Amino acid sequence: MNRQNLSPEALELQPILKHPEQGLVVADRVLKDLYPEFFSCLNFPLLLLDAGEDAKTIASVQILYDFFLANKLRRSEIVHVFGGGTICDTAAFAASSYKRGCRLHLYPSTLLAMVDAAIGGKTGVNYSGFKNQIGTFYPAERIVIHPDFLKTLARDEIRQGIAEMLKLAILFPEIPIPDSCEDLPHAEDILRHALYKMSICQIDPYDGSERMLLNFGHSFGHALETKSEYQIRHGDAVVMGMIMACDLSLQMGFISRERHAELRNILSGYEFPASVLAYVKNLDMDELLVIMEQDKKSGSAMRLILPVGKEIKLVELSE
Amino acid sequence: MNRQNLSPEALELQPILKHPEQGLVVADRVLKDLYPEFFSCLNFPLLLLDAGEDAKTIASVQILYDFFLANKLRRSEIVHVFGGGTICDTAAFAASSYKRGCRLHLYPSTLLAMVDAAIGGKTGVNYSGFKNQIGTFYPAERIVIHPDFLKTLARDEIRQGIAEMLKLAILFPEIPIPDSCEDLPHAEDILRHALYKMSICQIDPYDGSERMLLNFGHSFGHALETKSEYQIRHGDAVVMGMIMACDLSLQMGFISRERHAELRNILSGYEFPASVLAYVKNLDMDELLVIMEQDKKSGSAMRLILPVGKEIKLVELSE
After folding, report:
1. Continuous segment of H or E residues that includes residue A166
2. Which residues in A lie closer than 8 A to residue B64 (C-beta atoms)?
3. Cβ-contact A194, A112 below 8 angstroms
4. Does B137 lie in the same domain as B221?
5. Residue B2 lies in a domain
6. Which of A141, A273, B39, B286 is the most exposed place for a label (fewest CB within 10 A)?
7. Residue A68: closest CA among chain B residues belongs to which residue?
C-alpha cells in the first residue's frame, strides 16, 4: 500500500534541508535557479516545471507521466516535489494516478503552499477553463516545510500565503490574526497553521463537514480567479471572496451590521494591489455566479460558506 | 464523501434490469445497438464509447471529462457505466478524477467484467504502450450484474471470462473449476465468483498481500498482451501466463513433475484459438521479460506469482 498520511506526523519543519531518500525530483524551474547548490547535489533524475495556473494542465501531467516512465519509476518509489501550490497540485495528481499511485513527498516552496495547498491531500489540474476540475484525494506521505525557501519569495507571493492564514484566523479564534500582510511569519507560526489545517483534514478528509469551512471565501474566490483568467492571484481572490461573502450575509440578513463591520475591519488589514480593486469595481456579479454554479463544491443547491450570526457556516441557497 | 464500496453489499444480481437513479450514462456503442429499448427508455444524457484496449486512452478519458462538464455533472451525482472491462476501467478512472471523484455505478456487460474487471476498484488506461500505467483505486459504489447481457456475448468473449474464473478456481479450492470453456456459466456461479473476488479485495484493497495472488498469470499475461499489441485477448493471455508460470516453477525446482502435470492438466481444458498458440510458439521470451520489468506490479526485484510446492504464492526473483 502507498503510504498516504493525513496525520500531523506527516509534517516536518526542516530548518536545514536534508538530502532526501532515493527517488525522482520534480522542481519549479525558478527554485532550481535560486538554490543551485542544493539541486546539483541531488544525484536523482530531475524534471523542471513552470509554475502558475496556466501550467496546471493535463498536458503537464502527461509530461510528468513521461518522466516517470522514462525513469522506470516503481509504485514503491518516491516522487519528491519542490514548488509552490500549482506545481504541488499538478505533480501530486500525476503521482496519484501513475500505476494507481506511487509514493509522494512534498517540499512546498511558497508560504501559500506551506500553510494550505500542500496540506490535506487535494491534488488537481485546471480543465476546460475551470479550476481544479480534474484531481484526486491523495495525501502526501510526508510534507517538509523548509522556511529558508521563503527568503527569496516576492512580497506579492508572501501576501498570497498570508491570505490563507488570515482565513484560518477568522474561522478559528485560537489562531492569531497575522501581524502584517507583507512580512514573513515566523517558522513556528507557519508550522502551527499547517498543523491546524492538517488536523481538520484528518477529521474530515473528503470535505463532508468540518473541512468545508476551509472553503470560506473560495467559491467567490475561485470564480474570480477563473473570470480574470488567473490575473487575480489565489490569496487575493480568497480575501476578496471573504469580503463578498460578508457583504452577501449582511444583504441576506444573516449577520448584524456590527458583525459585518467587525469582519470587514479584520479584512481591511489586507492590502490588495490596485489592479485587483479596479477589476472588482468593474465586475458583473451575474457572470461570477454562472462560474460558481459549475464550481466543484456545489451540490444541487448553491452551497456557500457564509458568516451567520457569530459563526461561519455552510448555507444552502435554493436556486 | 463519495460512496465508494468494497463490501459484498455493493454487488447486486439483477435478473430484470431496473431503471437506474438519475445520473449520466456511459455505454458501449455495441451494447446500445443490442439493447435499444432499454437505452432509449433511459431519459439521461448518454455517451457512447468504443470498447477495446485501443480505446483505453487518456484521449478517451478527456472525452468523458468533456461529457461530464457539458452536462454539469456534480460530485454528488452518479455516472452509470454499461460495458465490458475496457469501458469500465476507462470510465471509472474518469469518474475517480473528475472533481476529485464523483459517484460511480458499474453495469459490467461481459463475463470478464462481471467476475473480474468491474470488481475491486482498480481503474486505469493504457499509456505509452504499457497496460494500465495510469489509473487509481476507486471502488464503485454499486456493481449491477445483469446476466441477460451475456446472451448476446460471442463465444470468444465468454472464454475471456472463463479464463479468470479458471484462475480463481486454481487459486482457491473452494471455487469449482468451470465445466466448459465456451458455455455460459449460471448466474449464481457468476455472482459467487464476483463475491469471492470482492471479499479478497476488501481484505487487501491495495494489492499488499492476499489480493496479489489474483495476479497469478498476469505478469506474463500483461506482457503477452502488450507484446502482441492486444491481438492476444486478456483471458487467453492470463491462461497462457499461468502455463508459463507453471513451466517456470518446474524449471526453478519450485514444484514437482507431478504437481506440474496436475496444474497443466487443469489448464489443458482451456481451448486457445490457433492464432494464440502460433504466436506463443514463435515468441522470444527475453522480449517478454523486458516488458515484465516495466509492469506495475514489479518491486525492486522481479516479483511473480508462482506455484511453489502445493501452494501458489508471491516469489521474489533477484535481478
Report:
1. helix A155-171
2. none
3. no
4. no
5. no
6. B286
7. B133
Using a 10 angstrom Cβ sphere, with 0-12 exposed, 13-18 middle and 19 or more buried, the burial of residue A38 is: middle
Q: How many domains does chain B have?
A: 2
Q: CA-CA distances (angstroms) from residue A166 to A153, A172, A266, B26?
A: 19, 10, 9, 44
Q: Do B129 and B239 reside in the same domain of the chain?
A: no
Domain co-membership, A148 together with A229: no
The answer to whether the Cβ–Cβ distance between A299 and B136 falls below 8 Å is no
* pLDDT tens-digit map of B226-284: 999 999 999 999 999 999 999 999 999 999 999 999 999 999 999 999 999 999 999 98
A133 and A245 assigned to the same domain: no
A173 occurs within a structural domain:
no
Q: Which residue range(s) make up the domain with A272?
A: 216-319
Tell me how far apart the alpha carbons of residues B164 and B235 are, in angstroms, rounded to a whole number. 6
Instruction: Let me know if residue B159 belongs to a domain.
Output: no
Q: So what's the ipTM on this one?
A: 0.93
Q: What is the CATH number of the domain that holds B109?
A: 3.40.50.1970
Q: Say yes or no for a CB contact (<8 Å) between A134 and B300.
A: no
Q: Does A210 touch chain B (CB under 8 A)?
A: no
Min distance B303 CA to chain A CA atoms (Å): 12
Q: Which three cell numbers stand for residue A307?
A: 458568516
Length, in residues, of chain B: 319
Q: Are residues B143 and B232 in the same domain?
A: no
Question: Quick check: A100 contacting B, CB < 8 Å?
Answer: yes
Name the least confident of A198-202, A293-297, B251-255: A293-297
pLDDT at A302: 85
By Cβ distance, the residue of A58, A101, A135 closest to B137 is: A101
- We report the CATH number of the domain holding residue A254 as 1.20.1090.10
Same domain, B221 and B138: no
**Which of these three, A152, A178, A204, is where a domain ends?**
A152
